[in-house]
Amino acid sequence: xxxxxxxxxxxxxxxxxxxxxxxxxxxxxxxxxxxxxxxxxxxxxxxxxxxxxxxxxxxxxxxxxxxxxxxxxxxxxxxxxxxxxxxxxxxxxxxxxxxxxxxxxxxxxxxxxxxxxxxxxxxxxxxxxxxxxxxxxxxxxxxxxxxxxxxxxxxxxxxxxxxxxxxxxxxxxxxxxxxxxxxxxxxxxxxxxxxxxxxxxxxxxxxxxxxxxxxxxxxxxxxxxxxxxxxxxxxxxxxxxxxxxxxxxxxxxxxxxxxxxxxxxxxxxxxxxxxxxxxxxxxxxxxxxxxxxxxxxxxxxxxxxxxxxxxxxxxxxxxxxxxxxxxx
Length: 328
Ligand code: ATP
Ligand code: MG
Prior knowledge:
Strand order of the largest sheet: 1-2-3
Bound molecules: adenosine-5'-triphosphate, magnesium ion
Distance between the termini: 32 Å
CATH topology of the largest domain: Rossmann fold
Shape: globular
Number of strands: 5
CATH class of the largest domain: Alpha Beta
């Protein structure tokens, strides 16, 4: 039995990329493992947010976690800011981190480029993420490919701490799916699809209407070769749609390429959209039943209580190891 931890930011509505790269695996990993899933709202505020929107997004994300198959009887679901140990261990992990290694993180570079005033939290995001994971003695972290670098840093920080102060943390491994770990933007298919992309047409949100999904896929950037084949380098748009189609239909990319020999991009895109709608519709139906129910608050209250009990033990051990407070 492995201990699993992962989180999603309430920066907007989860995208098809978040679902195919990470959230879909959250549900399947529940079988035979101890899973803890988090709404990482403290991470969300590393870039400016409208408070009302964050609040609404937190509720929607909670409902989506359940709609995507998280079973609160099996797994813990909670909000990061409701378990103060995250911020507390986050500070400790900042003290273990070096400026140089934080400045080298791709996400920091991507999200800070072109900004006049860069929030310090954007730089110290990875030590907080390390704390999230390490508090639960996590073995496996299901994430998309973009988080691999942060996971490597988490491992480095945990090893650095353990070597210096004694064995407090389990060293986690990433769990990155072989396909779907990097779903690309529909508008610029050399860039990853992101929840917070300003161009809403570049992203399929898991709560998009059927009409919007069709419209977005129809206008996805492709190429003028008019042949459907998998070539990430030269045909990033078509290759991305093939990955999405394959993951949403259960048919292999090779099978799809063979089936669409000699067919036009128009027909292909119509069928990709149909497969995406087929995957998202049942999730949206469950979401609609959950969003107004009182079940959400009960699940989140219970989740925070259970998460706190585990997290507090690790935090106390880390503080003891460092000699801070009166734990010793
Ligand atoms: P933001 O733009 O606000 O950072 P995001 O789309 O990157 O949003 P996160 O909440 O940061 O979403 O990430 C949630 C999970 O989804 C992480 O495990 C991340 O690796 C994964 N993920 C994010 N984007 C993609 C993508 N394009 N393809 C596959 N997985 C992804
Ligand atoms: Mg992200």
